[in-house]
Amino acid sequence: MSDRNITALYSSASVHDSSLALPLINQSSQKINYLYDLADAAYDNTIIKNFSELHNHRPIIDINPKNSKKLKVKIALDKSEKKILSALNLYNNSDDLHYNQRSSVERVNAYLKDSYGCSKIYYQGAQKVASVFAFAVLSVCITQSLKLVT
User: Fold this and answer.
1) Among 2, 20, 40, 91, which one is least packed by beta carbons within 10 Å?
2) Which sequence spans correspond to the domains of the chain?
């Protein structure tokens, strides 16, 4: 059995997720070797991308249009074009395939929030919050295991 674990950082709700990206990349890189840093548009920042590359990772991060209508239209057109080409089996970009794996993680996060009480946690302290999440993840694992059996 491996002694490797997942890196988790706890912060107050007032801390933006992107401010924890550098410590998360740094701590994770010390534990395991991995190739990609996948993130949504909230992490579209040169500092984060450069830090990812410094650790020999490939940052795959959504572009944040930052209130630019032209950029929003361009992104929408690019997505439409990729969908059409993918449907015709004429498009196969590995970065997009890796990025799409993120969506399954986002679904699990939403599932934890919507179905297992993780949307609002009224406890203080990292240990108490971690235990709430641990029980929620355990519950999801049991639920999914039961689906496989039945």
Assistant:
1) 2
2) 17-115, 120-150
